[in-house]
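Box 3.1 A note on notation
Throughout this textbook, protein chains are presented in two layers. The first layer is the amino acid sequence; the second is a token string describing backbone geometry. Keep the layers aligned when reading.
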Amino acid sequence: MQTEGCWEARVTCRSNLGTYGALRVAERCGSFRKTADLLALKQSNLSRRVRHLEEQLGIALFERMNGGVRPTAAGRDFADGVRRVLNELQIVSERATSRPS
């Protein structure tokens, strides 16, 4: 079994999943500060993760304003897709854990 690169893939997957979940919270809260507080993160780390994701995607997910953020049209579309994927992951996880070993 080839394991080269698996550690990096796990770290990337975990950090992206966390960022995707945080995007959903930020969309509802309208604030990276409030989102960071709710998720027990540093606001600067959350902002950096979102900015990095925006750079990877090549789109702005949020409009930054004094006192908060508002999702762009592309950000709303992306967040809707993320919501569907996270919901599906929840269903798959529940199925996997409800089956006898």
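Strands lie at 62-65, 68-71. The domain at 6-98 is CATH 1.10.10.10 (Arc Repressor Mutant, subunit A).
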